[in-house]
Amino acid sequence: MKNNNSAADGEQAGKLSVPSVVPTMTTTSVVTWRTVRVSVVLVGVTLGLFVLYNSAINPFKFLPVSYTYRAFRFSSPHKDPILEKVVKEAAMEDGTIIITTLNDAWAEPDSLLDLFLKSFHVGNGTQRLLKHLVIVTLDQKAYSRCVALHPHCYQLDTQGTNFSSEAYFMTSDYLKMMWRRIEFLIYVLEMGHSFVFTDTDIMWLQDPFNHFYKEADFQIASDSYLGNPEDLNNVPNGGFVYVRANPKTVKFYKFWYQSRTIYPGQHDQDVLNKIKHSPLIPKIGMKLRFLDTANFGGFCQMGRDMSKMATVHANCCVGLENKVHDLRILLQDWNNFFNRTIAGNKSPSSTPSWTVPQDCRTSFQRGRQHKDDKKTGN
Ligand SMILES: *[C@@H]1O[C@H](CO)[C@@H](O)[C@H](O)[C@H]1NC(C)=O
Ligand SMILES: *[C@@H]1O[C@H](CO)[C@@H](O)[C@H](O)[C@H]1NC(C)=O
Ligand SMILES: *[C@@H]1O[C@H](CO)[C@@H](O)[C@H](O)[C@H]1NC(C)=O
To answer: Compositionally biased, Polar residues: which spans (predicted)?
Structure first.
């Protein structure tokens, strides 16, 4: 907002410079007058730009022009009737929706989208949640694939960036994609919808609403969970969050989004891991809680008791093929467990357990190798 104002001030400064020059010119010939008028306008424009430029780099350095423009755009109601329609159709009675974002690489047949949707069907009490899922696509191909499989699809305006190929972990396109996602979620909150955001490489095995904290505004999955949901030393994973829409969470999300300029080159999750200590969070009054990996597991850390597991994330894993490979096995593990439970076979000796991570376990080293290969290839 502040930058918007100073941009307006800049224009004003340009205009104000005109009258102070004009009166002294009224007696000169028409030709000279025209030249002067042109140059006065030019001076005005230059002055305006100069003021704008200075205000953009100096006093509000942490708020770039692009951010304030978007913040302004968000606050205008009924901006996106298509999104509002999709969200309304998917919303639960209390307005809550489930959101995932998807690009072409993840939407291909036999890839993550298929596994993600399958998990809702083989999970315990998760199938009914599918009608509340909004799939936000980042490119046209993912959108077409979504429409073929699911009733609630929304194509996000990606503002000129091509997110369709597999955005390799921590490349600049990957970062842009992550931050565009946060920006989109601010908009959803401002529309008044609480949401569960889930990455598409998370399998929904049981209803997560049975495991959420009752009193929290913002609850987030953990890469590493130390045993206490309020302990700020827990390591968050932004791939799974449950956020209640209220003024506190809107303020917090805007603060999170702004903080990306203080920690350039870092993704939303790393920035969150820094700002979780900020005194601004208690000041806003937002209750932040970390979800237990016993219920919201992942390849970084995962509870052993399958009956307690709501969702499992292919985190601590890079590379699409590695994720697909291990998640496919995870669903088999789950089926083994769940079918036996249904059949009433509970003998401890035959109790199934997780057999993953496998390929994901070594994916970081092999991922680095892959990148180096690419470099020498170029
Ligand atoms: C985006 O990238 C993909 C793969 O790299 C390419 O096939 C596609 O044509 C690109 N789309 C646009 C709009 O540039
Ligand atoms: C399935 O979900 C129901 C309801 O939450 C629960 O009572 C039951 O124990 C679950 N089944 C298994 C195998 O975890
Ligand atoms: C278990 O149940 C699922 C779905 O109900 C089924 O597709 C699968 O073949 C069954 N058996 C095993 C061993 O996974």
So the answer is: 346-366
